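Retry 2 of 3 after timeout on previous attempt. Resubmitting structure tokens to design endpoint.
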């Protein structure tokens, strides 16, 4: 069984999508449609901008979404998923590829999400850090012990790699305590704020309004969602989970384990980079992985 998976923020690079644009008329028309919807030429930044321009949240999220979705749509009849999933932002790509959302509506929601998250980041100084070499349970226990500041597990990426998210003070305390508890590394990340934490609540409220007024369809295959790592096909459930995702943890390890338990043998990553392929191999090295960009 084939599982198509879609990356999140951080997978971007200058030049992303250029080959796709130049080699496919369908890709070219979709990229140009995106330029019209966004009101600026995102393709110019993707293909030949600077790293700094591409790192702006208002650019990064739609750029990764566009590269991911268009690479899947350009497969045409070869895009035949038995299931899909996406890491954080990638969940929007997974839903569009599976037919739960139109290309245009997906892009509008991703852009709305990016702007709302940017605003939330600017209102409260916050950050994230990658914790390497501790069991999930130990990380959860230590995060729960930090009550006066915000420090929560944000991304369960693979066994031995969890990203924590929260206030500047909370992450500083968390990193210190986790290193004391035996973490091999506690690496502060170069991000604009505390994604997938309670500090994203203002963005969640803003995004909820947009999601609730957007038409969602029944997807052509189950989409495994970040908040509970379970397969979903009900449009209303999908919307609720998509809203909750902004402040909830990304349960990537559990998603991959559940997909494998449900029969996935081949994982195809659509979009920029190969981060998800690496994580999947760390979760279970018996499955096949490949990338489509």
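Retry 2 succeeded. Sequence:
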């Amino acid at each position: 069984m084939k599982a198509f998976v879609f990356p999140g923020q951080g997978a971007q690079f200058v030049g992303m999508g250029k080959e796709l644009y130049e080699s496919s008329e369908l890709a070219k028309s979709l990229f140009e449609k995106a330029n019209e919807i966004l009101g600026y030429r995102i393709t110019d930044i993707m293909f030949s901008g600077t790293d700094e321009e591409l790192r702006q949240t208002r650019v990064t999220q739609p750029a990764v979404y566009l590269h991911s979705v268009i690479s899947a749509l350009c497969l045409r009849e070869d895009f035949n998923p038995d299931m899909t999933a996406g890491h954080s932002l990638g969940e929007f790509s997974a839903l569009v590829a599976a037919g739960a959302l139109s290309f245009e509506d997906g892009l509008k929601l991703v852009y709305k999400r990016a702007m709302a998250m940017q605003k939330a980041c600017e209102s409260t100084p916050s950050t994230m850090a990658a914790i390497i070499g501790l069991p999930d349970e130990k990380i959860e226990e230590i995060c729960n012990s930090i009550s006066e500041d915000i420090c929560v597990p944000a991304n369960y990426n693979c066994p031995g790699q969890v990203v924590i998210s929260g206030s500047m003070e909370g992450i500083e305390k968390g990193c210190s305590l986790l290193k004391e508890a035996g973490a091999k590394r506690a690496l502060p990340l170069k991000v604009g704020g505390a994604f997938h934490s309670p500090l994203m609540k203002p963005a969640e409220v803003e995004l909820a309004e947009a999601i609730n007024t957007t038409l969602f369809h029944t997807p052509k295959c189950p989409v495994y969602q970040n908040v509970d790592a379970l397969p979903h096909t009900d449009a209303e459930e999908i919307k609720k989970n998509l809203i909750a995702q902004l402040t909830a943890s990304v349960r990537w390890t559990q998603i991959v384990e559940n997909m494998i338990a449900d029969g996935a043998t081949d994982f195809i990553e659509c979009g920029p980079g190969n981060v998800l392929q690496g994580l999947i191999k760390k979760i279970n090295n018996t499955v096949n992985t490949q990338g489509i960009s």
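Attempt log closed. The longest helix spans residues 103-123.
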